[in-house]
Fold this sequence. Notes:
Keywords: Electron transport, Heme, Iron, Membrane, Metal-binding, Signal, Transmembrane, Transmembrane helix, Transport. It contains 20 helices and 2 strands. Helix 1 crosses helix 6. The longest helix is centred in the N-terminal third of the chain and has 37 residues. Strand 1 and strand 2 form a beta hairpin.
Amino acid sequence: MKKVGSHTSFSRILFLCLTFVLTFSTGSFAQDAAKGKELFNANCAACHKLDANSTGPALRGVAERRSSDWLHKWIKNSSGLIKSGDADAVKLFNEWNKVPMNSFPNLSDEDIDNILAYTSEPKPEPTVAKTPESGAAASGGGVSEMIVLGALVVVLAMLVVMLILVRRVLNKVADKNNLLTANETKSLPIWKAFVKNQFLVITSVIVLMLAGAYFAFGYMMQIGVDQNYEPIQPIHFSHKIHAGENGIDCKYCHSSARSSKHSGIPSMNVCMNCHKNISEFTGSPDSTYVDYSKEFYTAEIKKIYDAVGWDPATQSYTGKEKPVKWVRIHNLPDFVYFNHSQHVSVAGLECQTCHGPVETMEIMKQHSPLTMGWCVNCHRETEVNVKDNEYYAKIHEELSKKYGVEKLTAAQLGGLECGKCHY
């Protein structure tokens, strides 16, 4: 007699196959969304954002507002769709100031579907990230070192007072009980013995005068030296993010450093070259270059908009501008002449030579002391590049014979003359 196959086994196999198909399809969708994110950032992010209007409208959920067939036609050839008289295309074109959208005939149907899958993902929930206030609270959670030191000082002072009181009590007890013999004499107080010793008095006065002169000279030499000066600016600007993470050249913002005495403060339109389309911070809160929360950085970008009178919703200027009162950090005395172009363009120095590792600074500060001695040492140590420079050809030949060297420093070229910096 033949055995009949188990229906239970067949149902189990069918269930496993269905589970495998669903798992595979879910994984494919996730992979499609991941590819769509890459395509979106490469082709769409310059003009579009997911959750805010930019040069073009916000695109999250666009697949629910338009048909897939229409979106394929619009993305591949928006101009052609407008010319064909499509009502939706013409309306969209007019609503967005008749700014034509770039056509992407190179994108395949699969690429467009991947982009639409990315734009159909639900908006992520805001994450709680560290803020300046929470960071300060975290740093103050432990016991302060100053509190511990203060407690130790109080304890030592109490011990000293107790010892003095005990000594007085013992002396009174000894006097009352006539424990001191007639031959015993009380010792003089230390300060009376010190006054009677003229040698110690003169020596101490000389030492105190020398020490006072030393500290007074050191204090006077610090006047006007603002090393590590780190003021709070009206708009928080992170050099760590701009120059470090994004690799923006210093001279893109401080363009006048190439051809002017001053490096200059960048005008707000330089900021708007990028932030016209970057209205919120998009970096990861877990990145090592991020010191504050996404909300904090986004709020600082809004301060830029408020200053220039930019309305991100309508993508237009309102005409209401406000001055930004930047706080100057590096400031030389009026009797000192310093030319940025001579050092940046002629000498070829990097900005970090004087300003330190600005690409690592969240808040900009004065890295170098900028004193006369610091400048003089730099001129003594820095060799002048005279190779393929006709300007230095003759003077290099004469001075190399005079000093008997092949390479010349800025000091040997007259970099220590008073009139070079003081006039």
